[in-house]
Amino acid sequence: MSENFVIINGQRKAVRDQELGFSLLTWLRETAGLTGAKCGCGAGQCGSCNVLINGKVRRSCLFSMEKLIGAEILTVEGLARGNRLHPVQESFIVCGVAQCGFCTPSQIIAAVGLLQENPSPTRADIDKAFKGVYCRCGSYPRVIKAIGRAAAILRGEDWQEEDPEFARRARDLAGGRPLEEEGQVLGRSYPMPDAVDKVTGRAKFVDDYAFEGMLFGKIVLAPIPCGYLEELDISQAENAPGVRYILSYKNAREFRYGPITRDTPVLCDRHIRYHGQPIAAVFAETQEEADGAALLIRASCKETPGVFTPEEALAEGAPLVHPTGNITSRTAIEKGDIDQAFKEAAVIVEAEYYSQRIEHAYIEPETAVAVPRADGGLDVYHMTQAPFSARDSIARYFDLPPEKVNSIQVTLGGSFGGKGDDMTRLLCCAAAMATGRPVKLRLSRRDSLLYHYKRHPYTMNYKVGATKEGKLLAMDIRLLSDGGAYSFHSHRVMGHSVCYTTGPYYVPNLRTEGVVAFTNNAPAGAMRGYGVVQTSLASEGIMDELARALDMDPIELRRINALGPGLPMPAGQILGPGHHFREALDIAEQKIRERLL
After folding, report:
1. Can you give the C-alpha Rg of the chain in angstroms?
2. Around Cβ 409, how many Cβ atoms within 10 Å?
């Protein structure tokens, strides 16, 4: 019987019989030790696992090894020749493409595959080649520029660098030469110090870490949005192949966490508050065994009436999400004589605005790796924007001194405010401490979408009064937000919103109230903009409505009411020098006239 093999980056490598059922992605990462291809969705949708198979760009998560015997496979690790990067890799550095870097290898593979087939691609060709190669950081304009540069170099043509000094430093970095210290640093552009690691696939994200004897985890999520977990039958799962540990309310510590208010249980405490709340976690010798055992857990649930909008939550007699009530937070600001100001107004405009719940959509799903130490402590490799508060939460969970927890913040594959939750790392650490073995817990894309917190949806009611010349006199504002089942960042998010309800405009008389309600939806938390994005929609929308009511140019209305140095913001902060909103308006008006008028 002939040996099964594939050609990986020019090297012949055997494929064992027990590996024939592996996906190419799993085989590359777990057998070949090539982690440049990433698992973002595991369903062929995100493109983060791109490789070249017999010269064609393919999603490695969709191909089984038994279908690839004898195939030639090229990964991002096989592009460079020593310190000499492939022109596409160098161009990604010179053009400043890489941001978080999680999707960078897949983008580079897509670009290499395109240029091998088409040395002179048009913009339409590039767009077609990158369909389905997702980058949440949004670096596509730079990707297009990098492909143009690499294509010119591969054709033997000269390329005019946009920033010659930056390009020189980037080429030095790409060639393995250290960046020179050049006196003045401020005002100069420098390539990312880890850019080479990101374009070669050497940058290690949490899921790229592996330790001998490591267990793999899978969470089980609540199948109903509101009710009670009457019984959890784990008997079949306990006896499933490879299973070493199961966590549920039966053996998990009573523990609550949260960035502000500690009201979130690590696992459901039998009271289910949203569809997707974790109710158990299974840990096994392989990821496949953990996934299979999780399907064997039987949850008997009693569903009860819930509330799914903030209006429902605040209605008289509404079911309570928490015994303390359905109001997460209430924040208000009032200044001046608002009633008198509206009496003096020549025009009054009222409007209602809505913003939706939004998914962060980072390409790297939540993952943690915990390694128990001989001294009773833990090394925790995790994705976090707050490594010290994460350390303190883990230490509190185990009643450990903080110095016993080594909180290792590794390269983060996108976040946008969405990776501040403790659940994944706490479950991972609990299993590691219970089994004495390293443990990895990675959420699937489906589990991530169901479980983790989103941007707060808002309903915003604005009433604005102004003089006939357009001078703002008063605003009366009501904000109502859906905070979901637990507090998370709701207090701070609404606090920010209330402080920025008027936008970049001076309003002498103001009354603003913001309320966040508990509902039986997935929790809402931090996301880029942190409460300001929602109110910006409303504050700019109402200014346009006011401009129409006054038959006034909307930019001139904004210029009349623009905040500037010496004027107070809603919370009383006096703006100092360096605030240039009026100048920004002038530039925006000029560009609008140039392009649209």
Report:
1. 28
2. 17
